[in-house]
Every structure is written in structure tokens, then in C-alpha cells.
Amino acid sequence: MLKGKTAVITGASTGIGKEIALKMAENGANVAIIYIGDEGLAIDVKKQAEGFGVKAEVYECNVANFDISKSVCERIASDFGTVDILVNNAGIIRDGLLLRMSEADFDAVIDVNLKGVFNMTKHMSRSIMRSGSGRIINIASVSGIMGNVGQANYSASKAGVIGLTKTTAKEFAGKKVTCNAIAPGFIVSDMTANLPQAVVDHANNTIPLKRMGTATEVANAAVFLASDMSSYITGEVIKVDGGMCM
Ligand code: NAI
Q1: N or C: where does the chain have the smaller number of CB atoms within 10 Å of the terminal CB?
Q2: How far is CA 28 from CA 65, 132, 145, in A?
Q3: pTM for the full model?
Q4: Which residues have a catalytic role annotated?
Q5: pLDDT for 158-180, tens place per residue?
Q6: Helix, strand or coil for residue 14?
């Protein structure tokens, strides 16, 4: 479905980003795996992607840093040529009630989750516009739609991502680049691994499909948005949440 395309995925060494990178590779896309921290995890994803017969490279990059993300995007463009798909997946949480939330925790989440999307989109855009059918996919969250107690920073960042997605969709449409967001609900990953059991039980009871989602279920939506099957969809937010937010 994505044969001959090149996809850049941020936060691709773990969780949802890893699944997206591998699903893209399984569908024939070359993948640039952007990670921060443990290089071994990224190399493992690279090896698994290469198992699908595609080109895969790893790049360490703090997406929150404007200059570092610029130089990494330039390296990727030089290594792969045209980039067709950018998945802005990297994200962090620093949860706490607003009244107790520190300025540092607010800023850190906005810097990675929102400014990181701006940085990567801006620096990768020239290359994506050359694609002729470019795709930008931003991983938001249902928290950005509904708000969530304890997530003032996170829900603000993800609501910002949704606004940024719609503006990018409008500004880049003339270059045949679509931009959409995916808003996952409760997904099994490192990010949700340490939630109190009571929170997990409550989620499982209140979500209409009565379970948490998997990274693969989010990755399937990303592959759809990256493919020609989504050619007339832009500025959209697709929820992958088992019916949690409707
Ligand atoms: P995760 O913690 O496994 O993945 C986040 C990734 O982002 C990690 O690989 C991490 O190294 C990377 N990252 C963090 N800071 C970075 C930085 N400054 N520069 C580059 N990379 C950085 O968790 P998960 O669940 O896979 O999260 C992926 C995305 O999905 C995030 O944007 C998250 O907000 C979003 N999401 C997750 C949900 C869940 O229930 N797990 C629900 C809704 C959205």
C-alpha cells in the first residue's frame, strides 16, 4: 500500500510510534526512525523494519529543539530524498492537578507535544511538498478534545496539535499535502503502564468497547491516513478510542 514511499516517524522506538513505523514498513514504506534516549531500542525497530525489505535508518532527535530537529530533517532529506509521510507521534506526560502543576511541567509538555510538531512539520515541509501526495499525521489525544483532570498541560498541548493540524491542512493543501490527526483514547503502552489499577478498571468499565486499545489499532489508522485510500481527507481528527469520546 505504501511501496516506494518514505515515512518519518517521531518517538518511533517505543509504543505507538514503534508500531506505526513497523506497520508502515510492512506496507512497503522506507522508514526514518526518530528516537530519543536508548539507541538500542531504535536499532531493534530498524532491524525489524528491514525484515520487511525496506530501507530503515535511526536518528536521535529531541523534537522540542528547533535547531536539532532542523539538522535532523536535513539529514533525513539527504539520506532518503523526497519524504512522503511525516508522523508526529513523540509525546510526554507530566500529570498533576492544575493548582499543583509546576511551570516546568507545563512548559516541558507543551515543548515536546506541541512545539515538537511545529518544529518537525516546518523543517520537513519542503521535502514533503515535493512528494506530490504528502501526508502529515499528528498523534493528538481524546484529552485534547474532552479535557482531562490532571492533564492541564497535556490536554492543552493536544488541543493545540488539533488546531495546528487544521491550519497545516489549509496551508499545505495547495501542495497536495494532507494533514490529519489521530486522537487515541486509552492505549496499552509505556505511557499508560503505571496508571493506578482503579483508573484502568474505571476506563475498562466506561469505554463502550470495554477495553483499552492496542498500539496496532492506532497504527492501522495511521497507515490508512498515509495511503492513497485517504486522498480526500484533510484537517480531520480520527478518534481511535473504543467509543470513549462521542
Ligand atoms: P511512549 O511513551 O511509548 O511513546 C512516546 C515516545 O516519544 C517515546 O518513544 C519517547 O522516547 C518519545 N519522546 C519523548 N520525548 C521526546 C522528545 N523530546 N523528542 C523525541 N522523542 C521524544 O507512549 P505512547 O503511548 O506510545 O505515546 C505515543 C503518542 O501517543 C504520544 O504523542 C501520546 O501523547 C499519544 N497518546 C497515547 C495514548 C495512550 O493511551 N498511550 C493516548 C492518547 C495519545
Answers
A1: C
A2: 30, 18, 33
A3: 0.98
A4: 154
A5: 999 999 999 999 999 999 999 99
A6: coil
